[in-house]
């Protein structure tokens, strides 16, 4: 038994290190769970944008243009009947922007609404859908990945309870469905930032990961949208950056080639995704 203990400790340490590996994708530096949590806390889309661009929130750690400062994330919304979308878009340069994610919201009753957030495929390697989950133990580190694969925070958390979460009580939800609400379109640009905004230097992955980890507790990665009709509303609006695509195409393509996604069906019929990624090992000559 004494001889087995050191080996066990080594294996545990190795597993911890692998669990903390970065995918190399831009999405490592933006927490979808965190963005949804900030939307829950905000009183309006304008306040939500301010929270996203606050260093204290630890949601945004993106530096897509590699200038040594975090990118400003602006929020633009659109409404069609009872469906609203909120596009989270990074300002990359004076001429380019890149969509990071879109929040999809639908009112489906006098006091009922559902929501999800979808990470852009050029940022996360594939469309990544996150929704609220009342099961507080929805996330786990039980799955495994090889070194260089996706960090377990974004790839493997899943829920099996299948409960639809009513978000009507969220202050921002009630705000945007008030009769007096005017659709929010951020007025800020590459050259015109709000007076309160102070960019900060992005944190190293080993420092940032534990900070974004705190947002995992009540949000689940799933395989299907709650707001199905939002996709055709958003698609014509989608914006991508040539600079971002060129800079990250190797990591994104590698992720798409090596990932393996399996679907888990919960007892209530809801489907959830679990993704693992393997890395092609180099030959030894």
Question: How would you sum up this structure, described in words?
Answer:
This protein is α+β, with helices and mostly antiparallel strands. The protein has one domain (19-277). It is built from nine helices and eight strands. The protein has helices at 4-19, 32-41, 45-52, 121-124, 152-155, 171-176, 205-213, 230-234, 242-258; strands at residues 73-80, 83-91, 97-109, 112-119, 128-132, 219-222, 259-265, 271-277. The chain has a six-stranded antiparallel beta sheet with strand order 1-2-3-4-5-6. The protein has a two-stranded antiparallel sheet with strand order 7-8. A hairpin with a 5-residue loop joins strand 7 (259-265) and strand 8. The protein is globular, with a radius of gyration of 19 Å. Residues 5-19, 137-161 and 278-285 have low confidence and may be disordered.
Topology diagram in text:
Layout (H helix, E strand, L loop, with lengths): L3 H16 L12 H10 L3 H8 L20 E8 L2 E9 L5 E13 L2 E8 L1 H4 L3 E5 L19 H4 L15 H6 L28 H9 L5 E4 L7 H5 L7 H17 E7 L5 E7 L8
Antiparallel strand pairs: 1-2, 2-3, 3-4, 4-5, 5-6, 7-8
Helix pairs in contact: 2-3
């Amino acid at each position: 038994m004494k001889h087995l203990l050191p080996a066990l400790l080594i294996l545990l340490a190795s597993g911890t290190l692998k669990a903390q590996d970065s995918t190399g994708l831009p999405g490592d530096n933006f927490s979808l769970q965190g963005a949804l949590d900030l939307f829950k806390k905000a009183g309006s889309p304008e306040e939500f944008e301010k929270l996203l661009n606050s260093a204290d929130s630890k949601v945004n750690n993106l530096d897509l243009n590699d200038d040594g400062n975090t990118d400003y994330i602006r929020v633009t919304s659109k409404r069609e009947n009872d469906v609203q979308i909120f596009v989270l878009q990074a300002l990359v340069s004076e001429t380019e922007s890149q969509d990071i994610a879109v929040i999809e919201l639908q009112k489906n009753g006098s006091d009922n609404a559902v929501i999800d957030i979808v990470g852009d495929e050029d940022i996360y390697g594939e469309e990544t859908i996150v929704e609220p989950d009342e099961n507080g133990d929805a996330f786990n580190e039980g799955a495994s990945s090889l070194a260089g694969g996706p960090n377990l925070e974004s790839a493997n958390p899943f829920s099996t309870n299948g409960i639809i979460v009513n978000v009507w009580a969220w202050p921002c939800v009630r705000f945007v469905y008030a009769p007096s609400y005017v659709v929010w379109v951020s007025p800020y640009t590459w050259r015109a930032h709000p007076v309160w905004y102070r960019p900060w230097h992005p944190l190293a992955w080993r420092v940032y990961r534990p900070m974004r980890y705190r947002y995992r507790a009540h949000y689940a990665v799933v395989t299907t949208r709650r707001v199905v009709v939002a996709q055709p509303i958003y698609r014509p609006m989608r914006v991508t950056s040539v600079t971002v695509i060129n800079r990250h195409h190797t990591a994104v393509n590698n992720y798409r080639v090596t990932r393996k996604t399996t679907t888990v069906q919960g007892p209530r019929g809801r489907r959830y995704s679990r993704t693992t990624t393997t890395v092609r090992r180099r030959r030894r000559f």
